[in-house]
Design a protein that fits this description.
Strands 1-2 form a two-stranded parallel ribbon. It is α+β, with helices and mostly antiparallel strands and 100 residues long. It has helices at residues 2-12, 26-33, 40-54, 71-85, 96-99; strands spanning 18-23, 58-63. The chain is globular and about 40 Å long. This is RNase H type-1 domain-containing protein.
Length: 100
Amino acid sequence: MIALQRAIRRVKNGKDGLVNIFSDSKSSLEVLTGPKTYHPLAHEVRRDISETAAEGRAVRLFWVRAHAGIAGNERADRLARRAALTKRRQRTMIGSAVVS
């Protein structure tokens, strides 16, 4: 959910009219697209999507199968694994190649 939030906030700061965001987190996507949620982060993400849409830009969310050899998804998994194993926190810029 945090990765989706970061991607959508990046979209909010951009100028693209249509943005596709791919995620292998089916549960996060179901929470975001479901009729009701009590998850506070999901409310924030939904608000960000609504604000982006109000500016005339569209955000489309897509589910991709994990560990299916999709280059961008595999790279995102490697970055997440590395971050999880790192004891100290560090900021990592997410390039458009990962998001694309």
